[in-house]
Specification:
The chain is an alpha+beta fold. It has a single domain, classed as Electron Transport, Fmn-binding Protein, Chain A (Pnp Oxidase, Chain A, Roll). 15% of the residues lie in helices and 35% in strands. The protein contains 2 helices and 7 strands, in the order ββββββααβ. Strands 2-1-5-6-7-4-3 form a 7-stranded antiparallel β-sheet, with helices on one face. β5 and β6 form a beta hairpin. It is globular. It starts with a strand and ends in a 5-residue tail after the last strand.
Length: 123
């Protein structure tokens, strides 16, 4: 998937390829903190994504472990790709997609979870 977003400081438009899982209008991206694009979606941002050969309007937001949506996004990722994806980033995760309480605070130092909601096209 290609993710197109506007730089929060520069206003410049950037496009970057990202791995993702998708079901319907919900997309979840796991990315390394060493990549910097995620900083542009902290707090939510309008973005465009290229999926299946066409561009879609969407809303992206970085999720933190203390948010309600975090567990659902992690479980969604694990259900689609298995626990090895997050374990590969150094985040222990149960087979049913839970990040243990004792490592939740440090999980964002190893991987960021970004939820992207596709905006349905107008008829």
């Amino acid at each position: 998937m290609l993710l197109r977003f506007r730089g929060r400081r520069s206003g410049t438009t950037f496009t970057t390829p990202v791995g993702y899982v998708r079901e319907g209008d919900e997309v979840v991206v796991v990315t390394s903190p060493s990549y910097k694009w995620w900083r542009n979606v902290v707090g939510g941002a309008d973005v465009h994504v290229r999926l299946e050969g066409r561009w879609h309007d969407a809303r992206a937001r970085l999720l933190t472990p203390d948010e309600d949506g975090y567990d659902g996004a992690v479980a969604f990722q694990v259900a689609k790709r298995g626990p090895g994806m997050l374990r590969g980033f150094g985040i222990p995760v149960t087979d049913d997609g839970r990040v243990p309480t004792e490592v939740r605070a440090t999980a964002p130092t190893k991987a960021h979870i970004v939820r992207i909601d596709l905006i349905p096209a107008a008829p």
